[in-house]
């Protein structure tokens, strides 16, 4: 949710490789080996290179080198969402990131510094929507799940957060998500500016 749509990036990659634009999405929806590989990558059980070597033939492509970077090549920062995180933090709201990692290399340029705490699945051996990953994030932030608002673009991840007591926001559109966050926090986050600290 802090970037442009990941599936659009995957679709662009697939078109560039001469594949069905939904080839990656379909592989994961079918479950099986592709999803099992992703879960291993997300939790740090296999390295980036092994994932790429084993995932490429499932997609039907020959070159596996740099596959993760190529899949994510179309992603761009969502500046409005990043601005909302900064505004919330400036207003005294503790901010956290829970992310299912596609290997650790993609975090080299990630703006982790705008968060008070982060939980990267590959570092902790957990993945969304496992309940433990949400509880760990709250522990690192020093808050209870009932005090947390969780935003994600996958319904299963939002439902996982709600199951431990968080307020969930399913991200489909930046403007709609920001309007909901404005409402929940009582702050003008959609403008990227902070109001007075919450008291």
Question: What is the H level of CATH, i.e. the homologous superfamily of the largest domain?
Answer: HAD superfamily/HAD-like
What's the order of the H and E elements? Answer: HHHHHHEEHHEHEH
E-strand count: 4
Question: In CATH terms, what is the architecture of the largest domain?
Answer: 3-Layer(aba) Sandwich
Shape: globular
Count, helices? 10
Describe the structure.
It is a single chain. This protein is mainly alpha-helical and about 200 residues long. It has two domains: about 5-70, no CATH class; about 80-190, Rossmann fold (3-Layer(aba) Sandwich). It has helices at about 5-15, 25-30, 30-40, 50-60, 65-70, 80-90, 120-125, 130-140, 155-165, 175-185, and strands spanning about 95-100, 115-120, 150, 165-170. The strands form two sheets. The protein has a two-stranded parallel sheet with strand order 1-2. Strands 3-4 form a two-stranded parallel sheet. Helix 9 links the parallel strand 3 (about 150) and strand 4 (about 165-170). Helix 3 packs antiparallel against helix 4 (about 50-60). The longest helix is centred in the N-terminal third of the chain and has 12 residues, at about 50-60. The chain is globular, with a radius of gyration of 17 Å. The two termini are about 25 Å apart.
SSE topology sketch:
Elements: H1 6-16, H2 23-29, H3 32-42, H4 48-59, H5 67-71, H6 79-90, E1 96-99, E2 117-120, H7 121-124, H8 131-141, E3 149-152, H9 155-163, E4 167-170, H10 174-185
